[in-house]
Amino acid sequence: QVQLVESGGGLVQPGGSLTLSCVASRISFSNYITGWYRQFPGKQRELVASVDRGGAVNYVDSVKGRFDISRDNAKNTVYLQMNSLKPEDTAIYYCNAVWRTAGLECWGQGTQVTVSL
Predict the structure, then answer these.
(1) Rounded to the nearest 5 degrees, what angle is found at the Cα of 56, between the Cα atoms of 51 and 59?
(2) pLDDT of res. 28
(3) What is the pLDDT of residues 43-102, one digit of tens each?
């Protein structure tokens, strides 16, 4: 089956930086819109950032100027570089890939990001 595996989560102090990675198996990212979602405790997942096949990016307003999404199709990997982290960024972060014309959507298992002193 298709697998998306996230890594890079952990504990970081406010103002610090962290980079998340998502590696795919059994698919080619070149066919997909890829992105990162996050889920706060007790709430539904929200879209954080996405990048499409042409390189166009989209961010939720709360992370604009602080987070950067990128992808390396040759490595089937998507990244989320997070800078100037705030305690309110604390959440479980999930990798997502969508191939609309094929009717396919995949999710990773999630990685915990905690921003705290």
Answers:
(1) 60
(2) 82
(3) 999 999 999 988 999 999 999 999 999 999 899 999 999 999 999 999 999 999 999 888
Q: How many residues does the chain have?
A: 117
3-class secondary structure per residue, 25-82: ECCCHHHCEEEEEEECCCCCCEEEEEECCCCCEEECHHHCCCEEEEEEHHHCEEEEEE
Band of residue 4 on the pLDDT scale cut at 50, 70, 90: very high
Structure tokens belonging to residue 13: 């102090």
* Token pair recorded at residue 51: 């990048």
88 beta partners = none
Tokens of 3: 């697998």
Q: Is-contact 18 38, C-beta < 8 A?
A: no
Report the SS3 class of residue 103: coil
| Residue 5 near residue 96 (C-beta atoms within 8 A) | no
